[in-house]
Amino acid sequence: MTITNYSMQSFVDEQRKFFASGQTKSYDFRLQQLKKLKEAIALRQDKILEALHQDLGKPSLEGCFELAVISEISYAIKNLKKWMKPKRVSAGIENFPACAKIHSEPLGVVLIIGPWNYPFTLMISPLLGAIASGNCAMLKPSELAPHTSALITELIKDIFPPEYICIQEGGVEVAQELLATKFDHIFFTGGTKIGQIVMESAAKQLTPVTLELGGKSPCVVDKETNLKITAQRITWGKFINAGQTCIAPDYILVDKAIKQEFIQEIKQCVHDFFGDNPAQSQDFARIINQKQFDRLEQLLGSGNIIVGGETNRENKYIAPTIIDNVPLNSPIMAEEIFGPIMPILEYNHLDEAINIINSKPKPLALYFFSNNSENKKRILHETSSGGLCFNETIMQVGVKDLPFGGVGDSGIGAYHGKTSFDTFSHKKAVLSRYFWGDLKWRYAPYSDKIVNTFKKFYTK
Description:
The chain is an alpha/beta fold. The radius of gyration is 25 Å and the shape is globular. The longest helix is centred in the first third of the chain and has 17 residues, at about 25-45. Helix 10 (about 225-240) links the parallel strand 8 (about 220) and strand 9 (about 250-255). About 40% of the residues lie in helices and about 20% in strands. The protein folds into 2 domains: about 10-215 and about 410-425, Aldehyde Dehydrogenase, Chain A, domain 1 (3-Layer(aba) Sandwich); about 220-400, Aldehyde Dehydrogenase, Chain A, domain 2 (3-Layer(aba) Sandwich).
């Protein structure tokens, strides 16, 4: 059903009225809403797993990774009072006697637009941040994951009134109507091209944005590493959700000295994980739709296929695939892959790998496998990425006290844990003075003595 701009605006107007009532601001209200959300998800775990399987062919365990959002809610419940507490800071001797504090206040009515690749957790995770911060929220789940979208809609409507948390299903037209409506913050997760459209729309109304995008996240394998464990962690990180993960290792840069041995380990891992015929494996997901399938199939000709390469358009299946001898100017190195295709490139010296990384837009994640502490320092200080993992892939997303977000083309802003609370809060600066101890010297007429005193004071 297409929603007119007038009716969309009326939904937001009702939310603004509810926010203006002040109900969302109290600790008790926020706490109760988080508890309701947690309970509602816990009661629907099996339905969530089934919806994810219907939309993406997700294996049950990979679906359970999306249920980890329950622990995020528990973490917010545990820490909410501490997060809401005003933070006292120094007012400076020039303001003595005074008290300076930073108060976190909700932004108002926020818009959250979710993606299709992790359609449940990437909708609920920012929502819990908006709730914890005391906001009203408008949700737009991805129409490309229809079963999960319908389930989220049922869940939200069951526990929240629309004047508090409202959800709108639909396609591009609904998204456009939402973006034409004034919000106090827009949180978007998705591709870079759509992120640009969101930012352009937000700029017209001076609406701040959080953009969780993507990019080509490199994975560098140093010759000083445990090859077996390295191969296992890379294979898992690359092929989970059939490679449709924004922080999946996009391409592999491996030291030439160990390249062939590394390839053999990767081949073995693919076989160990998915068997002789991954198409029959219950543990390998499917591509979201034919459009993405066709895009990925075209990338298979970017090098020499040494593992996989089999496809089935009807079943939206692309086998876990490893490609060798990939030129830097090949199509697969020009865009984020977002699928189960692993290009392997070699380097002779770490300088070469760093130069390749830095020649591309800043990625959402960077992975470096090595036991060499000096090389780790070089990767840390000579590259830029949203996040960095040493000797691991993907797992940084589950560390609640680490902010998750991009830099440059891979995103604007971050969330998770307290960072989510901060993202949906305005940090109000509050200075409180007393009526005694007035600073008479600041009033005109100004004397040369006071000017000279200030010159000396600021240069100390």
